[in-house]
Amino acid sequence: CCVCGQTGATIMCCEENCDRWFHLPCAKEGGCVTQYITPYSSYCPEHRPEQDVQVTPEPGTECPICMEPVEDRMTFRTMVCPACKRAWFHRDCIQGQAMRAGALFFQCPLCRDGEAFAVEMFIMGIRIPFRQPTWEDNDAFADLGERHSWCNAKKCLYPGGRDEAEEEGPWELLLCSSCAAEGTHRRCSRLTKRIHHWECDSC
């Protein structure tokens, strides 16, 4: 392995006439690039693809993902969006974003370009899995679509409790007409049947 110097299962640089071999786990540490698209090519540090963007980051530029400073030029570990040429980020940060977003939602963290950005990142060795984003796992945001369903009055009078309500009448549950994040039974807030709009104390 040209990175760690040890033997074992290795892959070879795809550049013609290059005789460098390296372990896949050593590739990133040694600045090698492995493209996770067909035909799954790998390149040594000397022959790896480089971004063809003639820009440098402004002094004090921070990675929009981790908010830590990036290097003052393009390197293996500091990359730039090929679309806007303003978003500079660390390779590790954009790799993490790719793993979380998946192919359908992976985009530049600044300009939101998806197509040119993803193609460039594939070429530069960023692995972008073809799956749903991790925030869709286990219905993580399912509760955001649920309607508020209990009475928030200081003293709830309904015999069935705060979590119960009826379709109409004094025990109908009205939601705040501004935020819909709080509710009240009509009787608990002395609302007559002619009142169709109610606002909570916060609004």
Automatic annotation (TrEMBL):
Residues 63-112 form the RING-type domain. The keyword Metal-binding applies. Residues 1-48 form the PHD-type domain. Keywords: Metal-binding, Zinc, Zinc-finger. It holds the Pfam family PHD_G2E3. Gene3D superfamilies: Zinc/RING finger domain, C3HC4 (zinc finger) (3.30.40.10). GO terms for molecular function: zinc ion binding. The keyword Repressor does not apply. This is PHF7 protein.
